[in-house]
Amino acid sequence: MKWSVIFLSLALCSCGRGDMEYRSVGVTKEHIVKVCERNFFGKCVVSPDKVAFYFNAPEKFIGMPSKEDYSHYVGMPLYVSKNIISTVYEQDKESVEHGNYIVGTPVKTVEITYLGRGLDAYLSFLNNLKSADYTVVRSDVEGYQKYDDRLCDAASTSTSVGDELVSLRCGNQRQVIYVPENNRSVSITCWQTMPNSKFENLAACEVRSPLTANAEARYGIRYSSFIDGSWIEQNARIVAFLSAFISDSK
């Protein structure tokens, strides 16, 4: 955590609050198709009870939304290496493409969103998506509790996966969720393939980690970073960096 504090201090100092334009984006608790109504002066007006928190950062740090003052998430293109944490705008293209420990699109490497109901809400979403039955299953990674569709998990150890229901519900690859036994506030979602599938395991997983009581970060990591445990130190630095930009008011 010592290094996280140093990186955070340097980042905030380099922001140059006196000579850099800042934006304040209100992150809403849910996706709203028409986020706000315009008042007589053309200003966006949103009911305070719809806003979970505010994200205050230099304008060039914010990849999404591009202009709006309110959205259901903020996208920050973040760069993380062994010694540096910054935005991708502060690094050269080669470093971003080959040296970034986290993965994502150029405009939305990290998504900062409302925490909501956390893991329970996420599992409920997956269950409703394909009429699945996500539950705790035997974990194949030590130190983590694993959640998978009960049917898919059973089929993944079977020699025959030709059942039509399995094909409909599990497909060639599906999402499985790992929760650290020593930190149940964090979850890692990875794609897992069914036996005899032509697909290989994908190279990335998604980390969901709380930043504050109302905010969480979602970002992609390489599968190797999950397996070797290096994501844990990276996540601590990311949380320390992003939390400083979050407030309950503008």
Describe the overall structure.
The protein is an alpha+beta fold and 250 residues long. The protein has helices at residues 2-14, 93-99, 119-129, 150-156, 164-170, 223-227, 231-243; strands spanning 22-28, 37-38, 44-45, 51-58, 70-71, 73-76, 78-80, 85-87, 102-103, 110-114, 134-137, 144-149, 173-180, 187-193, 204-210, 215-222, 246-247. The strands form four sheets. Strands 6, 9, 10, 11, 12, 13, 14, 15 and 16 form a nine-stranded antiparallel β-sheet that branches. It has a four-stranded mixed β-sheet with strand order 5-1-4-17, with no helix packed on it. A two-stranded antiparallel sheet has the order 2-3. A hairpin with a 4-residue loop joins strand 7 and strand 8 (85-87). The longest helix is centred in the first third of the chain and has 13 residues, at 2-14. The model is unreliable at 1-18 (pLDDT under 50).
Tags for this model:
250 residues; alpha+beta; 7 helices; 25% helix; 32% strand
Helix content: 25-40%
Q: What low-confidence regions span 5 or more consecutive residues with pLDDT below 50?
A: 1-18
Question: SSE string, helix = H, strand = E?
Answer: HEEEEEEEEHEEHEEHHEEEEHHE
Radius of gyration, taken over Cα atoms and rounded to an integer in Å: 20 Å
Shape: globular
Q: Compute the number of helices.
A: 7
Q: Largest beta sheet, briefly?
A: 9 strands, antiparallel
Distance between the termini: 28 Å
Number of strands: 17
Average pLDDT, to the nearest integer?
83
Structural class: alpha+beta
